[in-house]
Amino acid sequence: MGDRGNKTILLNRILAFKPFTNGVMFQKDRRKSLFLEFSVGTDIFPFMLKRFMSER
Length: 56
Fold this sequence. Notes:
This protein is an alpha+beta fold.
């Protein structure tokens, strides 16, 4: 949820992701890339996402 609207990102649609210091860039299967910007947990989120994606 954010100022520009709400987005739902399904794990099975994520092909790859790239962490940044201020968020994560997602490469999805059918659409343009999406950048999710946040300030808390940027160091931990990529590790959690990688694990979730490996268990899907």
